[in-house]
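Proteins fold reproducibly. Take a tokenised chain:

. . .
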Amino acid sequence: MTPSKRAEIFRRLKKANPRPTTELKYRTPFELLVCVILSAQATDKSVNKATTELFKVARTPPQILGLGLRGLKRYIRTIGLYNTKAANILKTCRLLIERHQGRVPETREALQALPGVGRKTANVILNTAFGQPTIAVDTHIFRVANRTGLAPGKNVLAVEMKLLQAVPEEYRHDAHHWLILHGRYTCLARKPRCPECVIYDLCEYGAKVK
């Protein structure tokens, strides 16, 4: 795929959605961190439903710790892997208080040192909370990048590295959200909605639906 074609893809995605953002509901970097930890193998809708009630009673690391393990589980038990996620969130809260004065750190290294935070989660926080031009590759982005020919790769890290090189700088900050939303609502896994796609003619997928 040529640089001009890649630029046109993002020009069209921007035109269709000028201000893309996460569908997770949050007010602070810490709330976003909790949401993203909970979102692993879960839908944003299910996370928002749980955190709407959770954040009414606990919105900071000390407040979450105050709930205790049993209390936290009560709010997130509808989310998959909630036992592990609850334990990780409490451990993360302790580390935020001990090492970062209760604030979410703004570096990848510090974020990935937190329980339940991998590279993808760190990229989401750096991008969405702190405005850094990172790209968090989830299943949607991995599929879109490979299917369209935008940035093919055998694993998520390879796709991330290719996207950071391939996406024009002016679009890099929002590329993460555009690609996720495109994969979530248009470039579906089983039956892509090609006739509705704004980049249909630019996509290099060999089995496009007409």
Summary: The mean pLDDT is 95. The chain has ten helices and no strands. The radius of gyration is 18 Å. The CA atoms of residues 194 and 203 lie 10 Å apart.
